[in-house]
Amino acid sequence: MSERIKSEELMRYRANHDMLTNIPNRTLLMDRLEQAIARYRRNGDLAALLFMDLDHFKCINDSMGHHVGDMLLVEMAKRLRGICRELDMVARFGGDEFVMLLSDLGSDPRHAASDAELVAERIHEVLSHPFDIGLTEPLATSVSIGIAVVSHADQSAQDLLKFADSAMYQAKKEGRGAFCFYQEETNQWIKKRLLLENALRNSLKNGELEIFYQPIVEVKTKKIVGAEALLRWNHPQLGLMMPDEIIPIAEERGMIVSIGDWVMQEAFMQFRRWRDEHPNGKELTHIAINVSAIQFRQKDFVEKVMGMIQNAQISPSMVEMELTESLFIDKIDSVIETMKRLRAVGINLSIDDFGTGYSSLSYLKRLPFATLKIDKGFVRDIMSDKDDALLIETILSIAQIFNLNVVAEGVEDIEQYEFLRQRNCDYYQGFLCSQPVPSKKFDSLLLENCKQMNEVAAS
Ligand code: C2E
Ligand code: MG
Ligand code: MG
Hints:
The chain is an alpha/beta fold. It contains 17 helices and 15 strands. Strands 6-7-9-10-11-12-13-14 form an 8-stranded mixed beta barrel, surrounded by 5 helices. The protein has a 5-stranded mixed beta sheet with strand order 2-3-1-4-5, with helices on both faces. The protein binds ligand C2E and magnesium ion (2 copies). One magnesium ion binds next to strand 11.
């Protein structure tokens, strides 16, 4: 019996795998692709195919012999398998063609395309090191990659392959070692995104970045007591770009540290100018900056920030660093370490967008936060949604237990303000006071606010 089971298993393995490279073959790939498409139809989970073709393989085969070609394919398969996630699959499709199937890419086509793009880059990367297969010299090769993302419920596995294949030919045309997307619209999106990336790279030295400031208002008195620095990019053609479009690119493409450094320097300097030169500047007690996880995880982060603070001649206790819950997903010990060091030099930490991420109450207890910022998503519906109202009340009482200041974000109307005032929320930000504005505009906001404060005091 067991002999029979074994031989059946072996047969099944052989039917589904390529004997030379020992990776899945076309049959198994098509099977998995059908499943992925079925999942897309059922829950909208996107999948992508990367069709790879070795450049100049025929040349290698003809000039060096088939055994060299074979060895190269075996080594390539190993490297490709090395970068393949467990739920993805790399298969030998035939001759010198390999196909990688990426599954469960989420439901946003742009994210899926960008994931596929990253994998294509990774493939180029791992195959860019020459292969040492016992020849006198290591053998350098490259592949052209065509990418197709499933985009319609009526696409079949065959369609998708055809798309990826034709995109691969497009990539060959663009020069070997390239990759190309099939879908016209995705293609457009990638092109636009690449243009943006390059433009962002130059934005700093072209002086296109700017900081807007949003007042932080004391609820009880309506007095402006601080400012949050929010990044803007004046794109020469596209106009004013918001952080949601800038930060993800900057993070993915390794620009967030230089941009983040610039934001801090600029904001600290501006804060010093307000304190020294604005008639009411002394009313401002703090400047808040947003710090992304990548910035925060730099080894020399604390020293660097302190350098900038000293350079701007402000007190560390006037700096609030806004962190998001994404920081706590990974390497929590070193994150806590950095937080403690920041606290030790007097910098205040706040937790931004509270309630949208991974926060657990134990963080609030363990981590040295001074302030909690309630995400605007909860504030928006406090007047109409009982659950949101209750949630805010709960957050406020938790904050009290942990001795945290609370800032409510996104306060747009007077009813929301009243709700918060009655429940002793400490500060708010929102359009009710002002949108984020350029520094010059902030000057006049502050003047106006102080005038009102004086009038109230006089009456
Ligand atoms: P955030 O820190 O939670 O900032 C608050 C966001 O809410 C800002 O969006 C602000 O314009 C918006 N907002 C303020 N009041 C209201 C209101 O009453 N109603 C509504 N609907 N929205 C309001 P913005 O400027 O687009 O910034 C988005 C996010 O980008 C920020 O969220 C922050 O997480 C991030 N960000 C901004 N600047 C930087 C930066 O320099 N570095 C990093 N790492 N992230 C930044
Ligand atoms: Mg913030
Ligand atoms: Mg926020």
